[in-house]
């Protein structure tokens, strides 16, 4: 049995397989995921689990060197943006149009779907190295 807090076997496997500059996305329940991108569906019901609960869990194991957020989060979901900045205060953020983020999901190793029901609660995490 794992000692760390990421006990979902699919998420743990995906994180372990990521290399430097590889990407993993976490998002809300409505984000369209390309067929070629692995989807780990954690959504249970409205808001469960939340975007931040899942992000916080993933960040316990994943070294992140950059994050990508939709430009639209600034005006349509500033509360989640503030939480992300508080959780990753020293991590560079690249803001991109939401339409670009949807396209970029096809290059992600996986997408983790949460039960989040607020707009633009989506992130792409770029894997860093620990050395």
At a glance:
Homodecamer. It contains five helices and six strands, in the order H-E-E-H-E-H-H-E-H-E-E. With 131 residues, it is of the alpha/beta class.
Tally the helices. Answer: 5
Please name the CATH architecture.
3-Layer(aba) Sandwich
Low-confidence parts lasting 5 or more residues at pLDDT below 50? Answer: none
> How are helices and strands ordered from N to C?
HEEHEHHEHEE
Which class best fits the helix and strand makeup? alpha/beta
What is the overall silhouette? Answer: globular
Per the CATH scheme, the topology name is RbsD-like fold
Largest sheet: 6 strands, mixed
* Count of beta strands: 6
**Which CATH class?**
Alpha Beta
What does this entry look like structurally?
The protein is built from 5 helices and 6 strands, in the order αββαβααβαββ. It has a 6-stranded mixed β-sheet. The protein is globular, with a radius of gyration of 14 Å. The chain starts with 8 loop residues before the first helix and ends with a strand. It has 131 residues and is of the alpha/beta class. It has a single domain, classed as RbsD-like fold (3-Layer(aba) Sandwich). It catalyses: beta-D-ribopyranose = beta-D-ribofuranose. Homodecamer. It holds the Pfam family RbsD_FucU.
